[in-house]
Amino acid sequence: MLRPESYAMAQWIGPGAGARAVIGPVSGEQIAEAGGAPLDVQGMLDWARGTGGPALRAMTFHERAKMIKAVATYLNERKEELYAINPLTGATRRDGAIDIDGGIGTMFVIASKGRREMPDGHVYVDGAIEGLSRSGSFIGQHIAVPMQGVAVHINAFNFPVWGMLEKLAPTLLAGMPAIVKPATQTSYLTEACFRMIIESRILPEAAVQLVVGGVGDMLDRLGPQDAVAFTGSADTALMLRSNSNLVRNSVRFHSEQDSLNATILGPDVAAGAPAFDQFIKEAANEITTKAGQKCTAIRRIIVPEAAIADVSEALLARLGGTSVGDPAAEGVRMGALASADQKADVLDKLQALADETVSLTGDPEVLDLVGAGPGGAFLKPTLLRCDDPDAARAVHEMEAFGPVSTVMPYRDLAHATALANRGGGSLVASLVTDDSAVARAVTLGSAAWHGRLYITGASSAKESTGHGSPLPHMVHGGPGRAGGGEELGGVRGVLHYMQRTAIQGSPDVIAAITGQWTPGATEVTGPDHPFQRTFNEIAIGETIHTTARTVSMDDIEHFAHFTGDTFYAHMDEDAAKANPFFPGRVAHGYLLLSFAAGLFVQPDPGPVLANTGLNGLSFQKPVSAGDSVAVRLTCKRKTGRTEEYGEVAWNVTLTNQDGDQVAEYELLTMVSYTR
Known about the structure:
Aldehyde Dehydrogenase, Chain A, domain 1
C-alpha cells in the first residue's frame, strides 16, 4: 500500500492517526493512505520565508532558470518511475504523457524563457523609462522584484504532476519559495515526483515543501507578501478566497477553475471536409482524454443547425470505438474517473441535465470493460444533445466533470458566440474554420469571455496543439467562472509572484538599481576600445564618442544606386522639398547606420564574435548633404548566454554638427568571456 509523506522543514512525515484511505478508481480497493499527521504550519511558513526565500532571491534570474532546467532534466531521466504509478490514478499512458511529460516540458520552457527574456540579474525591468523632468535629471522606471513571502499551491486531482510543476516553475523563477498541497486522491503520484526533486539536491534548502492531507490553518497565517495559487472547482475557490485573513491582508489569490468550455464549428465547414474531420477528432479527444477530467475539456459543442445530424452521427461513431477499462491494459483508450465519488458526482450532474438534453449514448454505466471488473469508477463516453440552448440554463451553468459533452445548434455566428459566452467565462473556447472572416467575427464577439481562443482549420491541423492543451508560452486562465486568473504565459506567469514597483530618481540611481545604463547616467571611459575587451571586462556605462563624418551628395547617390533604393526623398530635390518632413534631398537612414558602424567599429580580431541584432531603431531628424554625423556608443546591459559568450546591448545615438540627435537604436553583440 502507498503511504505518501509530507515534507516539512526538511523532514519526511508519514500518514498519521487520522489518515484518509485512498480507494483506487480501477480496482475499487484501497491503494493508499494519506495525511492525518499534525504539521507545524507556522514552522513551515517561517522556514520558507526565512531560509528558502533569501536563498532564492540571492540567485539571479538566470541562475534560477538554470536550476529549473536541471530539475526538469533530472525528472525527465526518472519519469518512467512516475509512469509506473500513473495507472493507479485511472489514467492511461497517453493521459499520463499530458501530465508527466507535459509538466516536465513546462519546466523546460519556463527555464528557457527565463534565460532568453529575463535579465541576468535580480531586478526585472518592466517597460521603458518615463521622463519626469524637462532636463532628464529625474526619471521613472517600473521594476519587478520577488515577493518576500511564500507561495501556497493548492492543486487538483486530475493532473498530479503537471499541476505541481506548472506552478513551481514560474514561482521558483520569480525567486519565491513554495508549499505544495496536492489533492489527496492522487497525492501519491505528486509525492513521488516531489521526492525526486528533493533527492536531486538541486534546489536550495526550504525552496519547496509538501503537504499531503489538509493544510490546517495555514491560510489564516498568510500575510501581504504571500500568495495562494489554486486549481479546482469554482465552489472550492470561492470558499478559499473568502478566507477573512486573505481578504484582510490582500493576499494574492490566483485561481484557475473548471469551466464550461465550448467549441464552435464554423458555418463554412461541411461534413466530409478535412476541417470537419478535425472538429470531430478534437471533440472526441476532449471527451475521452483523462476520462473527460480536464479543466479545459469541451463541455459544449456548438454547431450550425443544419449540421446537428452530421456532427452527432460522426461523434457517435468515433466515441463508439473507444475502449474503456484498466488503463494499464493493452488497447485501452480511456481509463477510470479518479474516484467513486467523482463518478457519483458526474452521474448526479447528468441527472440534473436530463431535463434540457437527450442522451445520444444511452446509460453511461452500461459498457464493456477491458481488463477491469465492475467495482471501478468507470463511465462510458457520453454525448448529450440540447435542442433549445436558448431556453436551457443547466447546460450553460452546470459541469459534469467527466467524459460528457453536449451538442447544440446555432442559427448564425452572433448566436454561436452568444451561446459560447453563456458559460460565464471559460479557460478556452475553440473554433474550427477555414474562413478568416469567421475567425475574426468569433474573436471580436467572444474573446472577452475566454482566457484562450484556439482557432484551427485545414491549414493548421497538422501542427495545431489541441483545444485542451495549455501551453507554457500562452496564458492559462480565464474570466468569470474560470476564476479570473492567468497562469503560465511565459514571463507573465512569473510576474504573479513578483511586486511591480515604480521607482523614481536620477538616471544614475535608476541605472544602479536596474543594472542597465540609461541616457543621462554617468558614462565610463575604458582603457581601450570596448570591442577589444571581454564580456566580463566591459563595464555598464562604458562609452566611446567617435569623430564626425560629413555626408556628401556623392555618398547619397552612390548608396542609392548601389542598393537600388532610389526613393524620391533621396534622389528628387523638388519632390523631397514638397514633403513636409524633408528640407530637400536627404541621406538614407540605412546609409547613416552604415556610417555609424564605420565610425564606432574596431576592426581587429577580438572578443566581439558577432553583431546579432538591432532593436528600437528610430530616426529623429533628417540629414542632408553637407551635414556631419558622430556616434556615441554606450554599454547598456550585459546578459550571459552560454558558457562561452554573453550578449552586450549597446545604446547607439547619432548626432549632427549642431548636437541634435538624428537617430538612436540598440545594438546587440555576442562577446566572448576570453580573448
